[in-house]
Amino acid sequence: MSLRNNRYRILVSDREKNTRDAVAEIFSDAGYKVDAAGSGSETIEMLTRQSYDLIFCDLDLPKKSGFEIVRMARALNRDARIVVTSAQGEPVKSSTCQ
């Protein structure tokens, strides 16, 4: 584990448990502090309690959409980096997330 990585906090939000766990494990093994959420409402709850440096967010989450998550994350922390993922085959315009 790199001691430099442990100061960064990452949130992984994905409806698929296997995907969520795999991504979280990769970052955790690299020494990052990682939290994971399986729904939009759980993700929003975590965003209001903790500041994250990086957010991996599934576009298609139950209870709240990935777009709602991005808007809330931006409102709470403009400096956070956000990566939106999707199992859908169509590209998403960045302006949709703003």
How is this structure best described in words?
By secondary structure, this protein is of the alpha/beta class. Strand 3, helix 3 and strand 4 form a beta-alpha-beta unit. The protein is globular, with a radius of gyration of 13 Å.
Topology record:
Blueprint: E1 9-13, H1 17-29, E2 33-37, H2 40-49, E3 54-58, H3 66-76, E4 81-85
Parallel strand pairs: 1-2, 1-3, 3-4
Count of extended strands:
4
Number of helices: 3
Helix content: 25-40%
**Sheet with the most strands: spatial strand order:** 2-1-3-4
N/C terminus separation:
35 Å
Mean pLDDT, to the nearest integer, reads: 86
Query: What class would the helix/strand composition place it in?
Result: alpha/beta
Oligomeric nature of the chains: single chain
Q: In this structure, how is the largest beta sheet organized?
A: 4 strands, parallel
Rg from Cα: 13 Å
- Give the topology string: H per helix, E per strand: EHEHEHE
Proportion of residues in β-strands: 15-25%
Uncertain runs: none
Shape: globular
A few lines on this structure:
The protein has 98 residues and is of the alpha/beta class. It has 3 helices and 4 strands.
Structure characteristics:
98 residues; 3 helices
